[in-house]
Amino acid sequence: MSRIHTTPESHATLERRLGPLDAAAIVVSNVIGSGIFFLPIIVAGLVPTSGGMLAVWLLGGLLAFAGAMAYAELASVRPRAGGEYVYLRDAFGPLVAFLTGWTSFVAGFSGAIAASSKALAQYLGGFFPAAADTSALVTIPMPWASLVVTPQSLVAIAVIAALSLIHISGLGPGLVHNVLATTKVLALIVFIALGFAIGLGSWSHLSAGHPVASPGTGWLLALIPIMFSYSGWNAAAYVAEEIKNPSRNVPIALALGTGAVVLLYLGLNALYLYALGPADLAALIGQKVGLTDAVAQRLFGEVAGSLLAAFTIVSIAASISAMVLAGPRVYYAMARDGVFPPAVARVHSRYRTPAMAITVQAVWSSILVLFGSLDDLVQYTGFAVMLFAGIAVLSLFVLRWREPMVARPFKALGYPVAPAVFVLASFFMVSYSLYTNNFGERYGSAIIAVGIPIYFVFARRR
Fold first, then answer.
1. pLDDT tens for each residue of 59-69
2. Residue 147 phi, psi (nearest 5)
3. N or C: lower Cβ tally within 10 Å for the chain?
4. Element (H, E) at 146
5. Rounded distance between C-alpha atoms, residue 242 and residue 153, angstroms
6. 13-26 residues labelled b (16+ CB within 10 A) or e (exposed)
7. Exposed/middle/buried for 458, CB within 10 Å: 0-12, 13-18, 19+?
8. Can you tell me the distance from the alpha carbon of 286 to that of 378, in angstroms, rounded to the nearest whole number?
């Protein structure tokens, strides 16, 4: 077995400064991104009844919670930065661990940050039209695509740079991010409460149905977009090395964060159905009108549009902040093991943050902003998320079998049934995605494959 290399670039180490509520806020912000604001339309097109839709969203939430509790046990035993990178390294070896970290860097976190930043710029365009301008200022031809600089891409890059600097300074997790996350949650609660209290919806919609192509199996297919909406429930595990008393507080953070998201998602989907009903909800597929715009207009009239756009900007900013925080902890852990450039393991001597890892992620995310459309960027981030989350939960079984005498301050709830169901569901969704042979899945597979020779380059140097 090769010796793990520790990079002596800096004597500074990450500081345990986060409490359970700080970490739970990271989970909530990382999960509640743009998915919940358009994927319920797809679910409505697959499930024939309102009750069935809510049941599938609840099932997805229970699966996410089962995964979160598996991560909670893993993090309580291995409270280190990097999340599943650490668990896969110890369960399946350094190559598999490197592939999850490599994919997170190339696509998982960086691609999602790029896509979300462009979406934020697009919503800013409602207040400042120049922010959403997609007119090409500069075009740089490349072998496979072109780098296109537009006003929208410049705004997106500015967002990435600003949030990255905030997290390098150490203000991100405990101050700025908490403000964004709290604002997001309170706004959602107010939106749900006012929607049911004074909105012009109908309770009969919650017991309505409509025809769908495959009423018997549609709910299984609906789990794929639903689980994509729930992705990010593992965010607190990435920063376990910076959480006070992690054996106690990481499980609390994962439970609180994931539980809060499940309740908010059920409330939002119930409100969508209350406003539109399942048939009108499904009819929004392919329409230019956004889901939240249609719901707000039905409930409150035209006046709600600007307020909803402002909330969406805050919501997306909080999601970007969570990803800017979580992703670099993976690359930091990889560099500390000698399978990523050594400089990425540097910790800022004053702020005690992985400054170089944050910077590298910001640069690559900014480059991705200049490539392709928003749809292209979103499409290739989901495949790897499902794959490696399933493998990480599978590592719980491997490590329990291999290390039966290790003390476990927290044990996964419902073990072995709950984590086993999560693993099976994850592999089903990955298999179906590969079967459909979409561009995003092929691209995701290529990203993982390219990581294999790159790993051996680093391994040889190590």
1. 999 999 999 99
2. -85, 120
3. N
4. strand 146-149
5. 33
6. ebebebbbbbbbbb
7. buried
8. 17
pLDDT digits (tens, 9 = 90+) for 114-170: 988 998 998 898 889 999 898 999 988 877 778 889 999 999 999 999 999 999 988
> Where does the pLDDT of residue 21 fall: very low under 50, low under 70, confident under 90, or very high at 90 and above?
very high
3-class secondary structure, 243: strand
Start-to-end CA span in the chain (Å): 12
Rounded to whole angstroms, how far apart are CA atoms 248 and 76? 7
b/e 39-58 (16+ beta carbons within 10 angstroms → b)? bbbbbbbbbbbbebbbebbe
In sequence order, which residues have a C-beta less than 8 Å from that of residue 304 and are 6 or more positions away?
Answer: 296, 297
Tell me the pTM. Answer: 0.89
For residue 149, the cross-strand partners are 138
User: What is the rounded CA–CA span in Å between residue 438 and residue 308?
Assistant: 33
Q: How far is CA 336 from CA 83, 137, 164, 363, 399, in A?
A: 14, 40, 21, 20, 22
CB 377 within 8 A of CB 34: no
Q: How far apart, in whole angstroms, are the C-alpha atoms of residue 327 and residue 268? A: 28
172 with 303: CB under 8 angstroms? no
Among 450, 377, 460, smallest CA distance to 34 is for 377
Residues 6+ apart with CB under 8 A from 43: 53, 56, 57, 222, 225, 226
From the number of C-beta atoms within 10 Å of its C-beta (0-12, 13-18, 19+), residue 354 rates as: buried
Helix (H, G, I), strand (E, B) or coil at 339: coil
- What is residue 292's predicted lDDT score, i.e. its pLDDT? 83
State whether the Cα torsion 382-386-388-389 is positive or negative: positive
Residue in 26, 18, 19, 424 with CA at minimum distance from that of residue 261: 26
Locate 399 and state its tokens: 């490590």
CB-count exposure of residue 265 (10 Å: 0-12, 13-18, 19+) = buried
User: How crowded is residue 412: how many other Cβ atoms within 10 Å of its Cβ?
Assistant: 24
Helices (H), 283-380: 291-300, 304-336, 355-369, 374-379
**pLDDT at position 238 over 90:** yes
